[in-house]
Amino acid sequence: MLTKRDLLRSAALAAITVTTAKAVPANAQAKAEWPDIREAKAIAEEGFIYGLPIVMNYAVMYEYAVDRNSGQFKAPFNQIKNEARVYTYKDTAVITPNSDTPYSLLWLDLRAEPIVLSVPAVEKTRYYSVMLCDGNTFNYGYIGSRATGGEAGDYMVVGPDWKGATPPGIKKVFQSSTQFSAVAYRTQLFNSADMPNVEKVQAGYKVQPLSAYLKQPATVAATAVDFPRIDKEMVKKNFFEYLDFALQFAPAGPEEKEIRAKLARIGVGAGKTFDFKDLPLTHKIEIGLGMKDGEEKVEGYLASGQKDVNGWKIGSLFGDRQFYSGDWLKRAAAAKGGIYGNDAVEAVYPMAKALANGEVLDGSKSKYTLTFPAGQYPPVEAFWSLTMYDGKTQLLIENPINRYLINSPMLPGMKKNADGSLTLYIQNKSPGADKESNWLPAPNGEIYLVMRLYWPKTEAPSILPPGDGTWKPPAIVAAK
């Protein structure tokens, strides 16, 4: 989930808008190494698809952990920020944010030494998860209700180059493929009165360097980094320069060797023979066109690369390095669909922007309903939800009742039909006082709906495997 939807859309035209004058390398050899414009365009297309999640992640990291004046700043590296609230329309750094569970957010700098994460004992009835996601947007580990149970424990996170023994008391070691990494804690909130209990759980989340955990002298601090400022306009012009910067903290895996070598041909990453900015303007224009083609491929994958089930797009887009195995298009689609999503075993995300017949969901033109037959709610071990987003920005929407989602803990307060089924009213204006308990407010425009099934059941009926499971989400229906 790059910062703000508009940023993503305009990034594809990056090089076309570059106004930097054509620069000439100092020697003829460097000039001879320039790819021709057709090759530059092809590399840009592939490179954009490869680099999109990496640049998106950098933008979020910059707002959350670097720029204290971003308006979205959480905490410096290696310090946890507990949010005693759920996300609202005011949270704009991450697209398609979860508003189910209060977040605790942490950005790790693993360059100096490993970091130890400690979690408290959490009651079995309360779902929680700790997702480790590195700068490549690989989900490289989990702690929590499903993955490790509800017991207290200490876990160690190490950087890509770390080698060493596991200290006594550490339950498991997780290795990030990059030197900076995100950690997202999700703690279930049952209702507004439950927040103090969530805060007690959050207070038990501890973060400390390995040296502190071992009660040893601190290691020498890592060298300070001059993080380049990033915003919507800057990414339009400098996408590959941000990618170039981020890659220095991400040693190439075996499946990345080929794309990294290609990127070096246009001055990006280790092994480059000149800077990207030294390319002739004609090459930069072709690169801009290549990026546009790359974004269209990402959009196409989101539209057709997943199974269509009653109008819902269902697939398994998130995972670790092995899960992607060099499928950069799938990784880019995952990030653009909603960066920092969970592995399917942790959560599945049916997404809908249209009816089953392909008609775009639009709150300014229609009212909609979604009906779950009696006893046929999404099958989960934890809980499920349906969240409303603006179809263009993929952000939560401001609405008169401050309701961004409907989830299973809300069921006791909702009205069922005579046959035991549950109908949700998806529309811009209130459906009336008698139906308002079941109202999910929609924008006065395009709609993006995301269902979340946390810890999906594995036995039938199940949504697993994603898109081919025995449980199918019901179709959204336009009201007559």
Automatic annotation (TrEMBL):
UniProt key word NAD: no
Keywords recorded for this protein, A-Z: Signal
Domain DUF1254, chain residue ranges per copy: 77-209
UniProt-listed InterPro entries: DUF1214, DUF1214_C_sf, DUF1254, DUF1254_sf, TAT_signal
UniProt domain DUF1214: residue ranges: 346-457
Superkingdom, natural source: Bacteria
Signal peptide: 1-23
PROSITE patterns per the UniProt record, alphabetical: TAT
Record has Transit peptide as a keyword: no
Name of the protein this chain belongs to: DUF1254 domain-containing protein
